[in-house]
Amino acid sequence: MDAMNAVEWFGLVASVIVAYSLMLKDMLKLRWWNLIGAVMFAVYGALIGALPVLVLNVFISIADIYYIIKIRQAAVIKRD
Question: For the whole model, what pTM was predicted?
Answer without folding.
Answer: 0.89
